[in-house]
Amino acid sequence: MEKQGTVLFAHGSGSSRLSPRNQFVAEYLERAGIKTHLFDLLSEEEDTEKNRFDIPLLAERLMAEAKKFEGPIAFFGASTGAAAALVAASQMEVAAVVSRGGRPDLAEGALAKVRAPTLLIVGGEDGVVIDMNQEAYRQLNCEKKLEIVPGATHLFEEPGALEKVNELAKEWFLHHLGV
User: Fold this and answer.
1) β-strand partners of 37
2) Who's near 60: CB < 8 A, 6+ residues apart?
3) Does pTM surpass 0.90?
């Protein structure tokens, strides 16, 4: 019997389950047979600049949501949501993590404790975030891969950039969730 798994989306600062980019990725993963779950880490009232960067709070919310699912889970994090996904993955069993334009630097001391296979995807034109991801990559002690999408900026809005993210994430999740 095939393993079943679910990818939970951890949105970045100022984003929500209604993010067109994350919905685009989730729909692509669903078409590939991968279950996805988009939800808000913060309520509208809680969505403040301070809370958007409260990585322990965001990670706690992500872990609480993950406990609602049976079978393997994986995380797809964007921006500060990637840091929350990595912190959560350092504290619980997770099949895989994918970070899109993530801020793994905000995961602080959790990176060395992550055991889940981790894919970091960064836009080739997102210089500062490339540096942050390269440093995070060095700190990870798990199966890991860093993919730089040529010509893409932080939000992957360039033609074909988000499609490349979709393909990379799909392959990573299919391999590690065993779907």
Assistant:
1) 8
2) none
3) yes
Radius of gyration of the chain from its Cα atoms, rounded to whole angstroms: 14
Show me where the domains of the chain are located.
Answer: 6-177
Residue with the two structure tokens 């350092």: 90
Homologous superfamily assigned to 6-177: Alpha/Beta hydrolase fold, catalytic domain (3.40.50.1820)
Q: How many residues does the chain have?
A: 179
- Convert the pLDDT of each residue in 119-154 to its tens digit: 999 999 998 999 999 999 999 999 999 999 999 998
Give me the long-range contacts of 163-171 (CB less than 8 A, separation at least 24). 165/25, 165/100, 165/121, 166/24, 166/25, 166/28, 166/29, 168/98, 168/119, 168/121, 169/25, 169/28, 169/29, 169/76, 169/98, 169/100, 169/119, 169/121, 170/28, 170/29, 170/32, 170/34
**Residue bearing tokens 């939800």:** 39
**Which residues on neighbouring strands pair with residue 146, listed in sequence order?**
120
Neighbours of 87 (CB within 10 A): 27
For 42-79, the pLDDT digits (tens) are 888 888 888 888 999 999 999 999 999 999 999 999 98
